[in-house]
């Protein structure tokens, strides 16, 4: 008889597990709380520019390289992969921001694929998510409320039962859903693990022709990651993403065409576009008009942003719009502006023309990601791996319940793919 498997979460690890297990003859159903599959592979569109949320490049995709050996049997090598130049490292070691915390052994495993080859994907992470989702039984808008004895219950009252359940969400989030008793030591081990920091992101739309496209990522001064979006037909850059771990205040910098802050307090709600926005977050927009300088006191007195009501510029892609008040932990608008300007000025050390090239930007914070993915604190790379005790096995104390994703081992596309393969092998052995 055909074995049935339920997967909670349609991010990269969930989609990969579904694809692999389906190929092995299992009947797989994936439950996803959002309006589209993909998790951090999703993209969102602002004013005709497509931005990636968590996917920028992959390493080790060349012939015979680690990721290629996982992707080829799944038909993923037929996607429009484009080679990139090696990363540019300025004032930081070669592990900066690829790994928030970890052992030397882990650092080498994370970095090795990028030393072999680096690739980007035309269409961004959505292209990969769509390819993985094709042909799979994915139930959208299914927010799981409990997991008990091989049965998963959702907020809409629907229930799904199977021979095995794979959790592709953060293990701490799974514990909140799990109703079956498990060993206290296993629960405590998960609950006490430290998570990596979240990331503050500035998604920048550039003025046409203002900056040349650079076909590699830049890691700058131990502070900022710079990733370019797809180039314009003339070879110029259309957009870029600036990322920094949210580990404290960034250096204070002078305003960037200071009147940028004037439009923030009275920003009107935008028409809701659920296919291209992020759920329940506090993405911030900033037009950069040429206006006289703004007195510093005005910036200091910006009020905290009020609760949002179906504001398409402030939600993440593919999930229902948030129509309630934001949590008290959301970063105030004035701090988001300050951090965005700091990142732009830091990036200008490598890209001197950037401040004048910015046409508009949007920001997201760790709180954005926490509400989007359910990951505690909006952690970017999941559980920190400082030693063997921080690595989790796919198996759990319950013989029918399995874990997968970057929280088990290494992060990133390769780490998550290896985790998915390990989970499928473990499940296959038991079922």
What characteristics describe this protein?
431 residues, alpha/beta, FAD/NAD(P)-binding domain, 2 domains, 7-stranded mixed sheet, 5-stranded parallel sheet, 11 helices, globular
Please provide a written account of the structure:
The protein is of the alpha/beta class. It has two domains: 4-191 and 383-430, FAD/NAD(P)-binding domain, CATH 3.50.50; 199-376, no CATH class. Helices cover 25% and strands 20% of the residues. It has eleven helices and 20 strands. The strands form five sheets. A seven-stranded mixed sheet has the order 7-15-16-17-14-19-18. Helix 1 (12-23) packs across helix 11. The radius of gyration is 21 Å and the shape is globular. It starts with a strand and ends with a helix.
Q: DSSP helix count? A: 11
The whole-angstrom Rg is: 21 Å
Which homologous superfamily in CATH is the superfamily of the largest domain? FAD/NAD(P)-binding domain
| Strand composition percent | 15-25%
Task: Give me the secondary-structure category.
Answer: alpha/beta
| Average of per-residue pLDDT values | 79
* Main sheet record: 7 strands, mixed
Major sheet strand order: 7-15-16-17-14-19-18
Which CATH architecture of the largest domain would you pick? 3-Layer(bba) Sandwich
Number of domains: 2
- Return the CATH class of the largest domain: Alpha Beta
| Low-confidence blocks of residues | 94-101, 249-329
Instruction: Tell me roughly what share of residues is in helical segments.
Output: 10-25%
What is the end-to-end distance? 11 Å
Tally the beta strands: 20
Characterize the overall form: globular
Q: How is the CATH topology of the largest domain named?
A: FAD/NAD(P)-binding domain
